[in-house]
Amino acid sequence: MKNKHIDIQQAAEYFRDGMTIMVGGFMGVGTPPRLVEALLNSGVKDLTIIANDTAFVDTGIGPLVVNGRVKKVIASHIGTNPETGRRMIAGEMEVELVPQGTLIEQIRCGGAGLGGFLTPTGVGTVVEEGKQKITIADTEYLLELPLRADLALIQAHIADHQGNLVYQMTARNFNPLIALAADVVIAEPDSLVAVGDISPDQVMTPGALIDHIVCPKEC
């Protein structure tokens, strides 16, 4: 069995300038704090971040925005992070706002190997600008393309040594789907248990999708 355990310093070896990174979380809940801190401390820049939101200035992916490491954000909203709005208005950072359902479906399509999907969401609004519009049975749809990333950073509540993951309540949010849509997937669990301690019925993300596990401090 492949040893998937890495420490936070080894995780930082996967970071590089200009990469596209998906990060789980909703207003910081479900965002892996140690991995985001390592990403910030690594000094990498010009990142494209795909996430539900930019949380707060000191929470979630907010510190990456505040410290100028992000070139572009693709998100459903900017959260309660005023720095995101300031940088967007000043032209210092590109922000692509996507309806939340559309965003997660783009990620799901990227993970499933699909070429995109049709949705009526956004028709007749600024959302349709630059997108292909298709009419089926007198209904107009926008063609939304899949999203993938170089790297996905995931927070889990429990992991076993194979990388099978269990999430805690709403921290589940985007994490299971971004695990499907990135070339390399790193999980940060709160605790680590032996293989077999997680019932198969409880596994929310199978270990086959996880490349590396950042061990909890007691690991």
From TrEMBL:
GO terms for molecular function: CoA-transferase activity. Keywords: Transferase. This is Acetate CoA/acetoacetate CoA-transferase alpha subunit. NCBIfam families: pcaI_scoA_fam, PRK09920.1. The keyword Transferase applies. Pfam families: CoA_trans. The keyword Heme does not apply. Belongs to the 3-oxoacid CoA-transferase subunit A family.
